[in-house]
Amino acid sequence: MKRYVKMSQLYAPTLKEDPAEAELVSHRLLLRAGFIRKGASGLYSYLPLAWRSIRKIEQIIREEMEEIGAQEMQVPILTDGELWRQSGRWGAYGPELMRLNDRHEREFALGPTHEEAFTDLVRNELRSYKQLPVTLYQIQDKFRDELRPRFGLMRSREFIMKDGYSFSADQESLQQCYDEEAAAYAKIFKRCGIYALPVAADSGQIGGNTSVEFMAVADAGEAELVYCDKCGFAADTEAATARPVLSEGEAGDLEKVATPGAGTIADVARLLEVPENGTRKALALVDGEGNNVVVFVPGDHDMNDVKAEHAFGNYHMMTDEELQLAGLVKGFIGPVGLPEGIRVCADQSLRDSQWWLVGANEKDFHFMHAKQGRDFEIPEWVDVITAKPGDLCPTCGKPLKGARGIECGQVFQLGTKYSAAMGATFADVDGHDKPFLMGCYGIGVSRTLAAVVEQHNDGNGIAWPVSVAPFEVEVLPLNVGDDMVWPEAQRLAQSLVDAGLEVVVDDRKERPGVKFADADLIGLPYQVVLGKRGVKEGVAEVKNRATGERQDVALDQVAAVLTEKVIAQR
User: Is 455 left (phi over 0), alpha (psi -120 to 50) or beta?
Assistant: First the structure.
């Protein structure tokens, strides 16, 4: 027979004070409420409460993966370094890849992700198009040697992840696998109680051309997002194609104006009494091939590092010495009369802008009324600026809003990036060998736990959604060991368990205030408070932790009332 859990026997050591190291709400509350404990920098133990919630998140993932026919399995965490060399990532991944040698000096990697291992597995097993598509996944510990582990479970060196991989014969099949995974991810996060935006994203070190991240909206999120609440468009600012609102300069003859000391956009805008979006900013850099580059962007926007790497390779911004050698005047660079040998680019958002206010390539001077096509030409257009709130939605044209997000999941279309590099092929309908078209699908399980807490908390602690709460009901007898309240609390708790609910009873001989504070801190969805007066009157107080709503319920109805509430939210 299932029994309730006694708080006195539950390993959930709560803390009265906020840990000094904790910056985020989730980190602070998970430590204080006895869910996690730090072992070393970026390494955490999951205590029983956290582990129960993680198992529930994993179960939700498994149920949704089963719905789309994905098959669970597991490959070794330790991956042969030779496989990473075959894919080209051994050197490309960087110092975040944890590497080690065995006693025979053979190199291995502790996997941060397992594209290589899964590709190696199927290249020896899937030989015909008739066996495709196949989607395989695992839920496993992953490792990444973060330079600065921080924010608790948000950026740690060991973390729990669901990673899945699809293998298809053609693009239509890959698209179907990708769409099914994306739809399943949306359901998973909704069931976990997370408000997550699917946003267009950069593929980063995983690779591929098509990627969507699922971002849990939270003030503490590391990623900056823009979204449209009119049409549903959403994107990471690193991936969104910006459509800034531009103020066009006045028409007229090219005019050189004195701008003494105005070496920044803010200075120029203030001096000439124009809005910053009416100016054009020049950025000087050296691209990955060693060429000197000047790129022009709207004055009120910044260049994005990720986009710039796509456009210019392994670039760096020019030093003062490099500017001088290139014949460029810091703070006063413009497209009219640039020195020879400069690669000239502009952000594509300026393509239709005719009249520019720009530097005159002379200290303390700018050009007004510089006309594109008359006074200067832009030979190359690039997408390099960071989108920001107030830009126009690329889908419907309405102003975008801004938010911050925690990346909880991401889906990729890898194409043949790994299969071609690693010789993973199948025989098509005509008998020709072709590389698999692959998809990659990841969910940060431990990150999802933290994201739930970021979205579900108040000044008193966590307020768990039923679906991922470690337990569903906490019974709080205000008297323990007496012959009135304590026997009724035990009977009531067992009736809740018999009804199929997960129950904790706070049997500690603590003051009511301590019990109430810990109950709110840990945040189980429902609290049942039993005192002498209530028992005499035949009622218990039932509190909804998330809303704070309280109601008196007859003792013989508590199980029925809570069962109905809980089952509706599982």
Answer: alpha
Minimal CA–CA distance to 115: which of 155, 94, 86, 91? Answer: 86
How far from each other are the two terminal CA atoms of the chain, in whole angstroms? Answer: 22
Q: Tens digit of pLDDT for each residue in 81-102?
A: 999 999 999 999 999 999 999 9
Question: What is the H or E stretch that residue 188 is in?
Answer: helix 171-191
pTM, to two decimals? 0.87
Contact residues for 424 (Cβ-Cβ < 8 A; gap 6+): 119, 120, 122, 123, 418, 435, 436
Assigned domain for 239 exists: no
**Would strands 355-359 and 292-298 be described as parallel, antiparallel, or unpaired?**
unpaired
For 168, the 3-state DSSP assignment is: strand
Helices (H) and strands (E) in the chain, counts: 15, 32
For the record, the structure tokens of 186 come out as 């949306």
Residue 200 β-bridge partners: 212, 235
CATH number for the domain that contains residue 174: 3.30.930.10
User: In this structure, is residue 323 part of a structural domain?
Assistant: yes
Residues 449, 496 share a domain: no
Same domain? For 102 and 56 the reply is: yes
Query: Which range marks the domain in which residue 295 is found?
Result: 255-382
Q: Distance between CA 500 and CA 143 in Å, rounded?
A: 37
The Cα 400–Cα 421 span in angstroms is 40
- Whole-number pLDDT of residue 201: 73
Q: Look at strands 316-317 and 425-427 and give their pairing.
A: unpaired
CATH assignment at residue 349? 3.90.960.10
So what's the pLDDT on residue 47?
98
Region of 346 on the Ramachandran plot (φ > 0 left; ψ -120 to 50 alpha; else beta): beta
Encoded tokens for 520 = 């709110």
Domain count, the chain: 3
- The residue with tokens 């000044």 is 459
The pLDDT, as a whole number, for residue 390 is 95
For residue 392, being part of any structural domain is answered with: no
- For residues 56, 60, 61 and 62, what is the CA-based torsion angle, rounded to 10 degrees? 100
Which 8-state DSSP code applies to residue 155? B
pLDDT of residue 145: 95
Residues 502 and 552 in one domain: yes
Instruction: List, in sequence order, every beta strand (DSSP E) within 241-302.
Output: 255-258, 280-286, 292-298
**For the chain, which ranges sit under pLDDT 70?**
202-209
- Which residue intervals of 396-478 are DSSP H helices? 417-421, 445-455
Of 382, 397, 429, which closes a domain? Answer: 382
Indicate if 414 and 315 belong to the same structural domain. no
Q: Are residues 374 and 412 in the same domain?
A: no
State whether 62 and 185 are in the same domain: yes
Q: Are residues 131 and 269 in the same domain?
A: no
Looking at residue 34, its pLDDT comes to 98
Residue 246 lies in a domain: no
Kindly list the distances between the CA atom of residue 304 and the CA atoms of 92, 162, 253, 307, 311, in Å, as whole numbers in the listed order: 21, 30, 33, 5, 11
> What is the rounded CA–CA span in Å between residue 449 and residue 446?
5
